Amino acid sequence: MPTTPARIVTLRAAGTSFVVELSEPVPRVLHWGADLGELSEDAVEALALTADGAILNNAIDIPRRLTVWPTEAEGWHGTPAHHGHLAGGAGAPRPALTGSAVRQDPDGGGELTLALDDAAAGLDLALTYTLHPSGVLAVAAAVTRRADGTDPAPYDLAQVTTVLPVPRRATEILDFTGKWSRERSPQRRTLDHGTHAREVRRGKPGLDSPYLMTVGEQGFGFGAGEVWAVHVAWSGDQRYLAERLPEGAGVHASVLGGGELLRAGEIRLAPGDTYRSPVCHFAWSDAGLDGLADRFHTLLRARSTHPRTPRPVILNSWEAVYFDHDLDRLLALVSKAAEVGVERFVLDDGWFTGRRSDHAGLGDWAVDPVVWPGGLTPLVDHVRALGMEFGLWVEPEMVNLDSDLAREHPEWVLGPARGVGPSSRHQHVLDLANPDVREYLLTALDDLVATYGIAYLKWDHNRELHEAVHGPGDRPTAHGQVTALYRLLDALKERHPGLEIESCASGGGRIDLGILARTDRVWASDCNDPVERQEIQRWTAQLLPPELVGSHIGPSPSHTTGRLTSDAFRLTTALFGHPGIEQDITGCTPEELARLTAWTALYRELRPLLHGGRMVRADLEGDATLLHGVVAHDGAAALYCWARVATSPEGQSGRVRMPGLAADATYRVRIRTDLGLPSLHQTSGPAWFDRAVEGELTLPGAVLAVAGVPMPMLNPEQALLIEVRKVA
Asked: Looking at the DSSP assignment, which residues form a beta bridge with residue 718?
């Protein structure tokens, strides 16, 4: 049970400490980062004593403090914890602590809750800090308009931002941008004075999502450097920030934080109403980006809702048949899928009423009787008879104006009262905040899942939200759209507890821990080109473990880039995720089918390692080569991918260290040739490589992990699998 804490509260887990002083009127964070150990009473007092800086010239006459709910009342000129107004007034919040409770967990971590009061605005403020055993700190806030009967006016809440302090040595920012088929492209810059803010106004995190904003020591990499990061677990409009002021943030230099981006007038708190912020997940590591990733992967794998069964090999029909839903053709595709080892067949877009192209049909979630006169039963029965699960593509939040639904209920289309704006991908958005819309969708989806025993829904979201308002007054509803989506997903999962759902949004446009609290995997990108996918998957893994990331092999040339690549390169790339096939394999040659069959067998062999180990990535010069892998948590086994995506000036790789191995151990190394050898830009060697191709080679960890080994020179767009097993 939570207890009333002492004046200074310490939560510790997985090498992280979070220390808060319950100072008045508002508590402050004394430390967030490296574990300070079990602090004595004198050490705790020393930490508090050293938490005040100098009183500066031309400044307020008390030491500036960065509190847990920073406002101008304490001399804070950065982004405030919240701002808004009460009928044009109450514009100077002065929160004060009214209560607190703490829970210490026996396995590490715990929870601290703080209650504050903003008397002028009649607001009750609540902050909850949960330090998970992984060392990830989850922070959530709630703002409640008190129902005390003194003032019936609503409080217009403009923004709630959660921030934590970071030290002066954090001088560099890493976040992400992107576009369709090139999601999660990293970008770096110096953390200078001012605010580095990333605002998302797309109604979903977007293809250019900041994703995970990280600040750290100059030059931090995958394996080295102290780093601090934040992720906003919200599937709509977001705001991330890293902020540095000349006067600092108390004794700290900067703050890192985020929250939901609210539209003007969107959150009006009548007496008794509460706004609950998205959870912001903060993490610290002194082992670089891989250390951060390990914390988030551990957090996600510890969830009660995390997939526990082996992730099945998927064949998705989209790039195989597109809208050409001919039963005989699909039955042949299913049969061939079973032959090569597919475990789940997913029927993509084109199955429902009037859906012969993307111009019509969205919203009419009934099987098309013209194309499917017997319903989906003949296909589903064939899928199950061959030992596979059946999945189906849907896009419930969207509607084509050329649909029975839009013609019957034009008022269900989200947009201004004076008329909707332009379509995007020939579609508009349904107003999920309308309970009639949610009930219609829940009924339609429930019927489909129950009728066909559907195991898996590929849930798409192919356009951004523009003019997200509803009702005669054009009230903003981007927030309401997300909360309604969450209710819809929760209700569907409650009715079908075993149902798995994939979050797809034009590829990787809605990947966040809010949607993943209700879904079981994400589609990283519509791009299956392995050159692009090597980068996309490398950075998607900064937050998500591979078993949650859909990673399919597509045909050559690529559907999205037109690039020609070898099937071995495509297969190797797709192995490091939740693998699947996205092509018409009925047209494959016997040799190609044999490699697909070998690939599914290899995946099933390595699946426990790939989906249970610790991801590692090597820091290499340039972008032409990549080395990444998965190492078992007990160190007994590892699998690495050495890939070349472009040529480089160098003729030799030099010694390359294999991250994650122990220097004092001995390992057996072999090159996995199940998919064939890649094309090499050399005549032979290196010597260790030639021997590892022929059979197992024993090498000490000191050579593999510390000195490094020279890598073979691959031709561009080639990849190699290196298996490492520890000698008992």
From this structure: 644
Task: Give Cβ neighbours of residue 564 (< 8 Å, ≥ 6 apart).
Answer: 556, 557
Q: Which residues are known catalytic residues?
A: 460, 526
Q: Which spans in 551-622 are helix H?
A: 567-574, 590-610
- Give the C-alpha distances (Å, rounded to integers) separating 111 from 23, 100, 208, 301, 404: 18, 11, 33, 20, 50
CB-facing half-sphere around the CA of 25: CA atoms within 13 A: 13
CA atoms lying within 13 Å on the CB side of residue 500: 20
CA 435 to chain centre: 28
Q: Residue 530: enclosing H or E segment and its boundaries?
A: helix 530-540
Q: Could you give the CA distance from residue 335 to residue 325 in angstroms, rounded to a whole number?
A: 16
DSSP, collapsed to helix, strand or coil, labels residue 129 as: strand
Name the residue among 500, 495, 408, 521 with its Cα closest to residue 443.
495
pTM of the predicted protein model: 0.97
Per residue in 377-414, pLDDT (tens digit) is 999 999 999 999 999 999 999 999 999 999 999 999 99
CA distance 83 to 44: 33
518 close to 473: Cβ distance less than 8 angstroms:
no
Give the tokens for residue 605. 């062999």
With b for 16 or more beta-carbon neighbours within 10 A and e for fewer, the 373-408 pattern comes to: eeebeebbebbeeeebbbbbbbbbbbbbbbbebbee
In the chain the domains, ranked by start, together with CATH numbers, are 8-51+59-301 (2.70.98.60), 314-613 (3.20.20.70), 615-726 (2.60.40.1180)
Asked whether 671 and 720 are in contact (CB, 8 A), the reply is yes
Backbone phi and psi for residue 84, each to the nearest 5 degrees, phi listed first: 175, -160
What are phi and psi for residue 67, nearest 5 degrees?
Answer: -95, 180
Q: What is the pLDDT of residues 47-93, one digit of tens each?
A: 999 999 888 988 888 889 999 999 999 999 999 999 999 999 999 99
The sign of the dihedral angle between the CA atoms of 483, 484, 489, 492 is positive
